[in-house]
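Table 4 source record.
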Amino acid sequence: MRWIDLGVVAVYLVGITWFGARFKQSQRSLKDYFLGGRNTPWWAIGFSIVSAETSTLTVIGTPALSFGGNFGFLQVVLGYLLARVVISLPFLPHYFRGELYTAYELMQRRFGPRLRKLTAGLFLLLRALAEGVRVFAISIVIAIILGTGEIPSIILIVCLTLFYTFEGGMTAVIWTDVIQMFLYVAGAIVSLFVILGEIRGGWAEVAAMAQAAGKFQLFDFSLGEAFFSRPYSFWAGVVGGCFLTTASHGTEQLMVQRLLAARNEAEARKALFASWIVIAFQFTLFLLIGLILWAYYQQNGLPDPPQKDRIYPQFIWNELPVGVAGLIVAAILAAAMSNLSAALNSLASTTVMDFYKPGFPGKEEKHYLRLARLATLGWGGVLFAIGVWSRTVPSVLEAGLGIASILYGGLLGVFLLGVLTRRVSEPAAMAAMTAGVASNLWVRFAAPEVAWTWYVLIGTTITAAVGLAASLVLKGQNNGR
């Protein structure tokens, strides 16, 4: 009866693609295509932030963490909340001062055009690499379903997502995100209860087994020699998670673009904090799924699979009832498509607004809009290529977060210099950002024992310190206002 499940997946893929493409008629300007006309309600933007923050990495990677460990990953979520406080204070007021299309226009306003291009270019590199890993994560699910192999799976999902993003722009991205978020959360809840029904003794037995194995451990306050090598300690979670999320939501176009689509600063702030509530809930949900899967494997004497990222999608497709499996697989694909569509639109907006339009000003709006769609197509090809290249990564969740963390430190450091200082000039800021990224690359390859959750803190600290020191030496125009 697999054809019923395949039918459910096919109906979802066709339906969401058709729904997103329907927004083509409302795309008359760059403001419509990149910011949704700035008339989207805050709650929809909040759900869209969750969808963009989630991705297939979360859906298949988070259960793998609790399957092989405990609930320590939730310590990172506490850092996510602290970061939202930081973003709402120094960053949001600057973003809503004037009409900005990208986060990096703020860097030109504060420092100059060269730093704008440097920060925008770093974002393009960061998002392309990180999203390429996520594209590969999608292929894991589709390859299990269709048995088509990873490369045809990547082609399928990229082409479908590319179609409605190309046609409907940011409006399509946000509203498909809303639908997809509800679908994958509902699918996860259904799968949790179905998997729990396979456990002899139900939740009481799962809880007893987990308690004995220390699976419920949430906080790790220990210091010791391995302090910087543990990615999910309390200190790494709160401090590292705060810096990581401040960078991703406060300086990366993928998230800032959603905040800029809000009607005003107050609604952007509402969307930001509402998204954290949903994020905390869904991370807990996926960790519980991984815990119950662990109990299932223990009860049935099954060996741990070599690639834990495959545990959840394989169980769904092979063990769940007909129809239910199709629904939940469609939910996983929903998370994948929502994140991919967001990446495509943010990459295109940065390409056009930060690189092309400043170099070729004064052209008709239709010209820029046509180029925006072509840029969306081009980045679709780039993400496909990186997705194929990413097939050798051992953990898709930690690979995606690790790549982003290497580059976030330089971005966050220079943004903090921009919004919190006035004496740092553009040459000093460029030197600082270069030092921050270089330091994280050194840590990644020369000190692999340092956990990825510390990368952003290290890079940000070095960027800020070098920027302040360089401002005493390097001469340059200070554009701060």
